[in-house]
Amino acid sequence: MKIQDLVDGHLKEENDKPRIRSGKISPSSLGRCYRYQIWYRADLKPSNPPVKRDLRVFKIGNIIHEWIQGYFTDEQVEVLCEEEDVKGYCDMVLGDTVYDIKSQHSGSFHYMNAVGDDVFNDKFQNWLQLLFYAKHLKKERMQLVFVSKDDACMKEYNLEVKKYVRYLEKELDVLRELWVQYKEDGVIPSGEPKAYGGKECRYCQFASKCVAISEDDHPVRTELAIMKNSTRKLTKKQLSTVMKLENIVNIAEAINKKEK
Ligand code: SF4
Q1: Is the CB of 100 under 6 A from ligand 1?
Q2: Is 193 in the pocket of ligand 1 (CB under 6 A)?
């Protein structure tokens, strides 16, 4: 028996369990592409659900969360933060600070050298999430706890909430307006990848659906064309990205064919 098959089977089973979604804005999606956020809130069926390896990576992230949270009381971890149209759970709340644990591959972990305001800009999405929890719980400080998955190094950044809270307010204002337009008139926001250094489409669960309704200049098609036309020899990692992007486009074309 191949253990990997057994592991993947269990993970698929866990992932396929029906989830009751709140229908509210998800703090962990703040700062991402607006089209993605609106579709996610609307609970659209993903055109690109996580593959086996993604599920294994998510599981390792969960294990790291549980490991660190295990040192704190039930009241200090997974603290519900819910408002009329936003709902999420804060990883940890200790004293005047809200905390979020982020596990990362050592490759990106050891590149994090930003200081001052650059720390905020570098991890904009993660801070927006913490800003929501801090504002909701009336906390003054927020802290990101990064854990390198494969060499167990840790790095932490702590910022003052009041200096940055305006960014959260702006994001929520835009999202609320887009939600009204979507619900009342079916307007789909423009697709603009913002997270993951602008490479958000690669990791988007609606990527093929988005490519299917877009013009030829969709970021996935553009990135794919650039990589395929490169005169340099592609690395193994780049070749795997090409395969991923090609897969997104192929599914998009199948969607379009089916709808004709
Ligand atoms: S594929 Fe890219 S542009 Fe489209 S919804 Fe996803 S992140 Fe946004």
Answers
A1: no
A2: yes
User: How does residue 198 score in pLDDT terms, banded at 50, 70 and 90?
Assistant: confident
Looking at domain 26-183, its CATH architecture is Alpha-Beta Complex (3.90)
Separation of alpha carbons 162 and 140, rounded Å? 7
User: What DSSP designation does 122 have?
Assistant: H
Which protein residue's CA is at the shortest distance from atom 1 of ligand 1?
A: 207
- One-character DSSP codes across 55-89: HHHHHHHHHHHHHHHTTS-TTTEEEEEE-SSBEEE
State whether residue 92 is helix, strand or coil.
strand
Predicted pLDDT at 108:
84
Residues of the chain within CATH 3.90.320.10 domain(s) are: 26-183
What confidence tier does 82 reach under pLDDT thresholds 50, 70, 90? very high
